[in-house]
Write a structure and sequence with these properties.
Length: 175
């Protein structure tokens, strides 16, 4: 695989326990992929993406405990501390949103059109709050509110028109 065929999905924080378990921080979008597919994970070691076979993952508050094949003791797990975790990019769902929070500012000035309420609002700020991308929008009656910019809610982004078409849950614009 070439460099662009890998997507960073997390980081190994430290060894956990005595049996080779790893305390990791994984991207939220990657957790359902782990549950369904048990993907091969790649760790960047000495400039190479080395494959590790996924055995199981246990969700904790704010982190996960990961077990990889052939990582059987604390010493082996400790040697992996601090490494970034990658997966095959083909496993990653394509999002219409940029992955880098700094790139979200491109949406300032865009119009959001909700197809359910036929309401338009102008994006006046975009920020990431605890992994959730929120747009501060100005509604027609000069009221500001937050709207989640989540791939499941976005139908289309037309950069040439500065338009984000969404399907928002009923009542979300009334908050």
């Amino acid at each position: 695989m070439t460099e662009n065929q890998y997507t960073e999905v997390g980081k190994i924080l430290k060894a956990h326990g005595l049996k080779g378990e790893l305390k990791v921080s994984l991207e939220a979008f990657f957790l359902p992929i782990c549950e369904k597919q048990k993907p091969v994970l790649f760790l960047l070691q000495n400039g190479s993406h080395l494959p590790y076979f996924f055995l199981r993952l246990k969700q904790q508050v704010g982190f996960q405990i990961l077990v990889l094949e052939d990582v059987n003791d604390r010493n082996q797990a400790t040697q992996l501390t601090g490494l970034k975790i990658y997966c095959d990019s083909k496993l990653v769902p394509q999002s219409p949103l940029p992955r880098d929070p700094a790139d979200l500012k491109v949406f300032i000035g865009y119009q959001i059109l909700d197809v359910n309420s036929n309401t338009k609002a102008e994006v006046i700020d975009v920020q990431e709050v605890k992994g959730q991308i929120l747009a501060t929008v100005q509604l027609p009656e000069n009221r500001e509110t937050f709207l989640p910019l989540h791939p499941d809610l976005i139908l289309d982004i037309e950069h040439d028109k500065g338009l984000i078409t969404t399907s928002l849950p009923e009542g979300l614009l009334d908050l």
